[in-house]
Design goal:
The chain is α/β, with parallel strands linked by helices. Helix content is 48%, strand content 8%. A five-stranded mixed β-sheet has the order 1-5-3-4-2. β3 and β4 form a beta hairpin. The longest helix has 27 residues.
Length: 306
């Protein structure tokens, strides 16, 4: 008796991802498809495509929580049950863009495309349309549509939504178009500016994603990213609506610390040990003006000539 090992969702997803083959349409086939789209009243048509030839990597799910330059793509997982359901019947038709290089990129339907690959389907129907005139306009439409579609089917994480907002905030779009797209993703134009300031941040950006701090607070907290204790103090203060006062205290402490370090630097260079506070009575004997373990030494007057 032989048993067949059931593949894990991670294994199925990895195999489906690896099956991607960026095969472009011929010039003649692409021209014919574009003509059909142009003649359509809706600006899109149904078209059979090999799912292995559709790029799924532009989807809003495809990232981890880190900054853009360190992203690692993480497609949504597909399991055996979902693959079988797609193999039996595709309930919702995915959509794709026909790009200028005659290849396809998924608009809505990343999981369905991956499942169709895993099921071994040679072709499935897509609703095909042409991208907007500019790459930025196209990407904005993909981000807004992707967030809405994915949230309806399989809830996105806070990190996925934040990254979509982050990408949208960085696009070069006409002001009115950008403002509408931002509203569709739940943020205002002034929030987009703050999101841009958090690009590349570490802990501060994570607090904005998790909701521990709001966007304005996270941007202010970025200056304390090198101090985990200070960051935690700010997070705690925010939970008690005391963020502004705690931020002011931390900034003042940092300012005073810088002044003291500057004043102590000449003595440290001379070999004195810098004490954080005045020595107590118990150890004052071992800390005298002539002892290198004490700083700063008291200034003494020269004796008067007799």
């Amino acid at each position: 008796m032989t048993t067949t090992k059931t593949k894990t969702p991670a294994e199925l997803t990895a195999e489906a991802e690896a099956a991607f083959e960026p095969v472009a349409l011929s010039e003649e086939a692409a021209a014919d498809l574009r003509a059909r789209i142009a003649a359509s009243k809706t600006g899109c048509v149904l078209h059979e495509i090999d799912p292995r030839h559709v790029d799924v990597r532009g989807n809003v799910r495809n990232r981890q929580d880190g900054p853009d330059e360190d992203d690692t793509e993480e497609p949504p997982k597909i399991d055996a049950e979902y693959v079988e359901s797609v193999k039996e019947r595709l309930l919702q038709v995915p959509s794709a863009y026909l790009l200028p290089n005659n290849t396809f990129r998924v608009g809505d339907g990343q999981r369905r495309t991956l499942a169709a690959r895993a099921a071994g389907l040679e072709t499935i129907e897509y609703v095909v349309e042409l991208p907007d005139d500019s790459e930025a306009m196209q990407r904005a439409a993909e981000l807004v549509g992707g967030v809405k579609a994915n949230n309806e089917r399989q809830a996105l994480t806070d990190a996925h939504v934040y990254h979509a907002q982050e990408q949208l905030a960085g696009l070069d779009l006409p002001a009115k178009t950008k403002a509408k797209a931002l509203r569709d993703l739940g943020i205002r134009a002034k929030d987009a500016k703050v999101i841009n300031t958090l690009r590349g941040a570490g802990k501060a950006r994570q607090t904005a994603i998790s909701g521990e701090l709001d966007l304005i607070q996270a941007a202010d907290a970025r200056e304390f990213e090198d101090d985990p204790v200070a960051m935690q103090r700010l997070i705690n203060a925010a939970s008690w609506d005391r963020f502004p006062s705690e931020l002011a205290v931390l900034r003042e402490q940092r300012r005073v610390k810088a002044i003291l370090e500057e004043a102590a630097a000449p003595y440290a260079r001379r070999g004195f040990r810098i004490l954080p506070a005045r020595p107590t009575r118990a150890n004052r004997k071992s800390c005298t003006s002539r002892s290198p373990s004490c700083t700063p030494p008291r200034a003494t007057r020269s004796p008067r000539p007799t």
